[in-house]
Specification:
The protein is an alpha/beta fold and 297 residues long. It contains 12 helices and 8 strands. It has an 8-stranded parallel β-sheet with strand order 1-8-7-6-5-4-3-2, sandwiched between helices. The longest helix has 20 residues.
Length: 297
């Protein structure tokens, strides 16, 4: 059977309305995203790095990311947009990244225009590569997407220019990235609804074929908490909640460990735990039956 590329599936969803994509940093969380009824999920480099015990500064390898992409894609059965940081190198590595992510089952990836080592998009002290260099990398990514998927794989260009050179520079770079072939744009670090609206409006005017727009709804950063429906009104098609699941899980883990250390018992934490039956249901596993399965794509 010929299966529809997940990039095509995601485009069809975005053409109908805004798509919310919670972050899934492993296969179990990806299953929970599917179980909750979401139509897509997101793999965050920040969440993957943190769950591996390292900061989000480009430490993990392409192979580690591709392994996570495959795990999240297979476990959820959903189209996945995956963080590709700065592309793991120059043009040749950007091409390899697209090929590896496509082979691992991703619907697409975003590549940012920071220097290496990169910084979290909502931290100060970021620096950008020249726009011409970023355009070159994206051109290679677009050609790789064409080669491996006939262009179905979504190449998303992330720009961190807002926090470095201002919103006007972010709009200028985004326009150049669309001209290079990117079909989705991710303006990182916008600081108000007015900025999101202006960015979407300006890109719509500049581009003959406006791209899909991605909004990052991360907590404790520069962007105010904004509902999914409001992002749709502002002109955005795909909204990620990149680290929400990790923050929630680790908040509960730290509280449980503190209580266990203090009391020597897990009794006070039982009500907050996922029980065995619910875990098996999430895993698609019947201990009295035969085998288990991944969610269908």
């Amino acid at each position: 059977m010929t299966q529809q590329h997940p990039g095509v599936t995601l485009r069809n969803l975005m053409d109908k309305g805004v798509v919310g994509a919670p972050g899934a940093f492993n296969g179990l969380v990806a299953r929970a995203v599917k179980q909750a009824g979401f139509d897509a999920c997101y793999l965050s480099g920040g969440a993957l790095s943190a769950s591996s015990g390292v900061p989000d500064v480009g430490i993990l390898s392409l192979d580690r990311f591709a392994q996570a992409v495959r795990e999240v894609s297979m476990s959820s059965g959903l189209p996945v947009i995956a963080d590709a940081d700065t592309g793991f190198g120059e043009e040749e590595m950007v091409r390899r990244t697209v090929l590896e992510y496509d082979n691992a089952g991703a619907a697409g990836c975003h590549i940012e225009d920071q220097v290496f080592p990169k910084r979290c998009g909502h931290l100060a002290g970021k620096a950008l590569i020249p726009m011409e260099q970023s355009v070159s990398r994206l051109s290679w990514a677009v050609q790789a997407a064409q080669d491996c998927s006939g262009g179905s794989f979504i190449v998303c260009a992330r720009t961190d220019a807002r926090s470095v050179d201002g919103l006007g520079a972010a709009i200028e770079r985004a326009h150049a990235y669309v001209e290079a072939g990117a079909s989705m744009i991710f303006p990182e670090g916008l600081e108000s609804e007015d900025e999101f609206a202006r960015f979407a409006d300006e890109i719509g005017k500049l581009c003959d074929k406006p791209p899909y727009l991605l909004a990052n709804m991360t907590e404790f950063g520069k962007t105010p908490i904004t509902p999914l429906t409001r992002f749709e009104e502002l002109g955005y098609h795909f909204v990620i909640f990149p680290v929400s699941t990790l923050r929630t899980a680790m908040g509960a883990v730290v509280r449980m460990l503190s209580d266990l250390k203090a009391t020597g018992s897990v009794s006070g934490s039982l009500d907050e735990m996922q029980n065995r039956a619910d875990l098996y249901t999430l895993l698609g596993y019947d201990p009295q039956g035969e085998g288990w399965s991944f969610p269908s794509h």
